[in-house]
Amino acid sequence: MTTHISTHNPVRSDLPSDSATAPRRTPSRRWALAGIGSAVAALGGGVAAGMVNAVYDPAISDDADAVLDRLGDFTPQMVVFQVLTSISALLLVVFAVGLFRRLRATTAGDSLAPGIAAFGLLGTAVVLVLGTSLNTEFAFGVAEEGLLVPEAAVVYNHWIGTVPACWILAGLAGLATYAVARSGGVPRWLGRVGLVLGGLTLLVGVLPVQYMAGLTGALWLLVTAIGFAIGDKAHRSA
Fold first, then answer.
1. Residue 197: DSSP 8-state
2. How far apart are CA 186 and CA 112, in angstroms?
3. pLDDT at position 20
4. pLDDT at 73 exceeding the cut of 70
5. Taking each helix axis from N to C terminus, what angle separates 168-182 and 113-131, rounded to the nearest 10 degrees?
6. Cα–Cα distances in Å, from 46 out to 89, 149, 202?
7. Predicted confidence (pLDDT) at residue 6 exceeds the cutoff of 60
8. Which of 48, 138, 185, 235 could lock 81 by a disulfide, CB 3.0 to 4.6 Å apart?
9. CA 238, CA 116: separation in Å to the nearest integer?
10. Per mean pLDDT, which range of 10-14, 34-38, 58-62, 64-68 is the poorest?
């Protein structure tokens, strides 16, 4: 009796495997570049909003009609504020998702840090959009006599001077980055930046000086985004 044994080798040893020929993908840095753009736009929008200072002028601050009349001189600044702040909000969403992915790549599956960081930045993006929401009525309405109630114009000027600067939730992202850095998931120096500037952002956001959080929060975003864009070489080469 003759016995036949059939063998089947689906993989040829003389040919390279798919994994060997697949091109190696380097993690994209575009999300970090979006963070840089968001920070720069936010700082520029804050400067533009600060130039609309009719309600803070001691000579007319108690005269709503005078404040409304003066606001008519600041239409260009109001438009610049809205455009830059809106751009900042849109880019911040991209950075938030990118930071979530980056932190999740180097943390345990049950870590809360990536989610907290993303939530803090997405919440800040919403605040930025709300900060510009009254511009629809006031950016050009202040130039038309009799269209707006003077007291409403006073509220508007206070609104753009405070609300867009409420970056308290961004402080959570800074501390979340610090938490990941402690375990070696991100560069240590980025963790320290998150601890200092993120902590300050939370502190001034809790206290009745919320407008200062816009500065510390945007500076944290700028430094952190630059760090991930040009200084995160160990992760990109892993």
1. I
2. 15
3. 44
4. yes
5. 160
6. 13, 25, 19
7. no
8. 48
9. 25
10. 10-14
Q: Which two three-digit tokens encode residue 48?
A: 């533009």
User: 194: buried, middle or exposed (CB in 10 Å: 19+, 13-18, 0-12)?
Assistant: buried
Q: What count of residues does the chain have?
A: 238
**Angle, vertex CA 34, rays to CA 111 and CA 238, nearest 5:** 50
Whole-angstrom Cα distance, residue 155 to residue 133? Answer: 13
Pull the structure tokens for residue 134. Answer: 């009254």
Of the candidates 174, 173, 88, 99, which has an alpha carbon nearest to the alpha carbon of residue 132?
88
Q: What are the structure tokens assigned to 109, written together? A: 């599956």
Half-sphere exposure of 144 (CA within 13 A, CB side): 8
pTM for the model stands at 0.86
**Tokens 């979340």 identify what position?**
176
Closest CA to 81 of 58, 59, 57, 53: 53
158-to-18, 44, 73, 79, 188 alpha-carbon distances in Å:
61, 18, 16, 16, 39
Residue 132 neighbours by CB under 8 Å, 6+ apart:
81, 82, 85, 86, 160, 164
